[in-house]
């Protein structure tokens, strides 16, 4: 099972014992704490868990605890006899994955909680970054559990640095440090410095005398250690720490219990009708890791947190997993190196490297300049400014600039800023906005969908004469075989329709257009509309070559002709649809493209608007007012740029490593029977082909689409559209789930969509598919 049981229980206080280094006395401190917890709560259980242990069995830490704290129930999950690092010791046995280790720890915590109230200490091996059996850092291994930490500081020479470094490594990964435990040392006095250091950060500490030196015999040694443990566990300051730890546990749960009520009184949520909001339906998130939120479960009597699959990829931003340590460290590095620096006439390495990387991987000879902004909407605002200005400068229209419109697609939406909003047709998003004035024409278009197991291209209702009847295809790959389809009846009809509409608008109605703006392949906010790629390809081609747009002679193949073409890749770009850029799927390259969402792996906001030199040249002039006077205080924020560079590198690495190969093969097998040319771009999805086909037969489903990490299910509804509530029942059913596992999704009217990350495990997706089939079929 890819889903994890709760790591936070009302009746079970669970703490993780980390050491700032090896040989700092973790097990000795654990022994003192187990005895003190038992003394403080005599009617409750105390457990000690050592997930991974190396070395001779008779020297194992769990045996030490059992010997000197006999009321404690001890357990070791994975014992390796060789006294070396776990990653070396595990070589001689069956490979142990991090997921398996996590599952075993959580299963033990669950068993403890179900057997009665009490306390469990989970002691790690070595230092914070000691390797796991798989070779990863144990700080990353245990991160999804996010147990509160008791850090045993290093009292040796150099221990101050090691202890602070250990704290920072844990802190940057989202751990909460509840207390610092340390031995007193008269020579180095580490404990006095560290006590003051951690007190300034609001973290309590406990300093204890070190254990006595070893006795001359084993019996003498055991007697001396028994006396030491009795004395230490009876100290008032030890009891104070035990009381504080217990109070912090209770406060954490109390805080989670009250957050939704506090939020209801103070928060104004986006895209939300607040008449439908109450504390009962606000989801409280304690943390997130990988594809899952850890959400508070008020209905549970004991297990407080429930893993909840992030089915909307956190509004389409999540690609590399929540809390990804590589991205967190990248952000910390850039924050420490730069903070933020203004970006007018300056350059810093993260911004330059990101621009070079993005241009390289887009592999579009038309594009050469990168403009930075904060999010997709502002990036689209910039793109529209660029395109309309370039057109106006070229054509020198003798009309007010505000009369220049754009050409787009029905159902498109490009953001909430004024210019981006005006580039979309009237809709529920903007019809109540006072300053909205949509300027342009929005083409209706044929849509791709699977209906009753068949891939079809369906014309808009009432437009069969313009586009032809519904066309059935043997595979998704065949639909993307654009070169083979160009000479088809559909291709000829599309071109004719586009030319006739533009001729009417321009020559008969006197409309003036300055740009083509569209989301390649899938229109997100409009309802996950899957446009026929042939139509989008031909719309671009007609606009670039039509006599209706008499461009001056261009100087190179990269100079825009007709009108500048803008691809809004905020949602669809960076492998969302299975390729680095969806322009590849259209076999048509833009003059301007906009990239956000997955750009930073879901960690920080950033957007890149990438333009051609011919667009850039339109802003060259003798006066400052000729320039693109647009920018933000946090333009090219070094943290965002550095994280984005790491994110792109990781996405490219995932593709090269072949992590998606099995999914590609699954979809490729469905196209072998079809006649697909060698030039066709492979279309594939992480959602299994058999599942997509099966769910399309459900009585409640009108159609389904799947591409890359996107899955969208359109439910039957006579009153379809954004105001439809047809999908809310399924949404609630998935979120209701069970105490073990829930799925959080968003809906767009009667469309329920599911978004995997680019690192989602196949077993997770198969389980999600099973839940959807059970809910619909």
UniProtKB/TrEMBL annotation:
Record-linked InterPro entries: Aminotrans_3, Aminotrans_3_PPA_site, P-loop_NTPase, PyrdxlP-dep_Trfase, PyrdxlP-dep_Trfase_major
GO molecular function terms listed in the Swiss-Prot or TrEMBL record: adenosylmethionine-8-amino-7-oxononanoate transaminase activity; dethiobiotin synthase activity; pyridoxal phosphate binding
Main location: mitochondrion
Keywords of the record: Aminotransferase, Transferase
UniProt cross-references to PROSITE patterns, sorted A to Z: AA_TRANSFER_CLASS_3
Top-rank lineage group of the source organism: Eukaryota
Entry's localization field: Mitochondrion
Protein's UniProt keywords contain Transferase: yes
GO cellular component terms, A-Z: mitochondrion
GO BP terms: biotin biosynthetic process
Name this polypeptide is given: PLP-dependent transferase
Species: Hyaloscypha hepaticicola
């Amino acid at each position: 099972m890819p889903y994890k049981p709760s790591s936070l229980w009302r009746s079970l206080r669970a703490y993780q014992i980390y050491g700032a280094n090896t040989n700092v006395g973790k097990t000795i401190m654990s022994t003192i704490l187990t005895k003190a917890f038992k003394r403080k709560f005599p009617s409750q259980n105390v457990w000690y868990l050592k997930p991974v242990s190396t070395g001779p069995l008779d020297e194992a830490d769990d045996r030490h605890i059992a010997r000197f704290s006999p009321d404690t129930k001890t357990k070791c999950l994975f014992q390796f006899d060789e006294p070396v690092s776990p990653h070396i010791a595990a070589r001689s046995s069956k490979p142990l994955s991090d997921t398996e280790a996590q599952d075993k720890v959580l299963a033990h915590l669950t068993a403890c909680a179900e057997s009665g109230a009490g306390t469990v200490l989970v002691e790690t091996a070595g230092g914070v970054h000691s390797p796991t059996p798989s070779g990863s850092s144990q700080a990353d291994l245990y991160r999804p559990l996010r147990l509160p930490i008791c850090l045993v500081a290093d009292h040796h020479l150099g221990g101050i640095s090691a202890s602070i470094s250990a704290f920072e490594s844990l802190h940057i990964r989202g751990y909460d440090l509840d207390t610092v435990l340390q031995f007193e040392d008269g020579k180095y006095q580490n404990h006095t410095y560290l006590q003051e250091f951690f007190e300034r950060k609001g973290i309590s500490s406990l300093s204890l005398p070190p254990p006595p030196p070893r006795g001359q015999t084993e019996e003498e040694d055991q007697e001396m250690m028994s006396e030491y443990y009795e004395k230490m566990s009876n100290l008032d300051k030890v009891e104070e720490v035990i009381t504080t730890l217990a109070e912090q546990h209770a406060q954490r749960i109390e805080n989670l219990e009250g957050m939704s009520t506090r939020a209801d009184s103070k928060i104004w949520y986006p895209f939300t009708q607040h008449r439908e909001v109450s504390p009962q339906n606000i989801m409280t998130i304690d943390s997130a890791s990988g594809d899952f939120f850890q959400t508070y479960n008020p209905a549970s009597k004991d297990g407080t947190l429930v893993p909840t699959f992030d089915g909307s990829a956190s509004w389409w931003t999540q690609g590399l997993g929540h809390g990804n340590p590589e991205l967190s460290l990248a952000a910390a590095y850039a924050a420490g190196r730069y903070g933020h620096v203004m970006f007018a006439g300056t350059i810093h390495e993260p911004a330059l490297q990101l621009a070079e990387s993005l241009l390289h991987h887009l592999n579009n000879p038309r594009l050469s300049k990168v403009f930075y902004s904060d999010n997709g909407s502002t990036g689209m605002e910039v793109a529209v400014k660029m395109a309309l200005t370039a057109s106006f400068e070229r054509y020198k229209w003798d009309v007010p600039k505000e009369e220049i419109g754009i050409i787009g697609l029905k159902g498109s939406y490009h953001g909430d800023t004024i210019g981006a909003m005006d580039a979309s047709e009237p809709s529920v998003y903007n019809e109540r906005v006072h300053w909205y004035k949509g300027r342009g024409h929005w083409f209706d278009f044929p849509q791709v969908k699977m209906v009753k197991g068949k891939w079809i291209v369906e014309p808009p209702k009432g437009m069969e004469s313009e586009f032809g009847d519904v066309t059935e295809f043997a595979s998704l790959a065949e639909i993307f075989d654009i070169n083979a389809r160009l000479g088809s009846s559909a291709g000829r009809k599309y071109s004719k329709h586009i030319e006739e509409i533009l001729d009417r608008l321009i020559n008969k109605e006197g409309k003036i257009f300055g740009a083509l703006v569209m989301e390649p392949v899938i229109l997100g906010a409009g309802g996950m509309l899957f446009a026929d790629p042939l139509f989008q390809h031909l719309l671009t081609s007609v606009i670039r070559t039509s006599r209706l747009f008499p461009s001056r002679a261009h100087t190179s193949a990269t100079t825009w002709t007709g009108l500048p073409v803008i691809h809004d890749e905020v949602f669809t770009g960076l492998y969302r649809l299975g390729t680095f850029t969806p322009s590849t799927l259209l076999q048509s390259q833009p003059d301007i493209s906009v990239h956000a969402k997955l750009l930073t792996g879901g960690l920080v906001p950033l957007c890149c608007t990438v333009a051609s030199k011919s667009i850039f040249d339109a802003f060259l002039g003798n006066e400052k007012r000729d320039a693109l006077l647009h920018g933000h205080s946090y333009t090219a924020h070094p943290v965002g740029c550095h994280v984005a560079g790491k994110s792109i590198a990781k996405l490219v690495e995932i593709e090269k490593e072949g992590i998606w190969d099995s999914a590609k093969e699954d979809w490729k097998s469905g196209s072998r029977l079809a006649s697909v040319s060698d030039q066709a771009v492979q279309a594939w999805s992480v959602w299994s082909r058999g599942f997509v086909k099966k769910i399309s037969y459900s009585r409640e489903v009108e159609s389904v689409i799947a591409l890359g990490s996107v899955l969208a299910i359109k439910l039957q509804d006579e009153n379809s559209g954004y105001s439809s509530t047809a999908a809310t029942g399924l949404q609630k059913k998935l979120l209701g789930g069970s105490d073990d596992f829930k799925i959080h999704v968003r809906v767009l009217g009667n469309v329920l969509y599911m978004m995997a990350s680019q690192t989602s495990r196949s077993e997770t997706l198969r389980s999600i598919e099973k839940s959807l089939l059970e809910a619909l079929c």
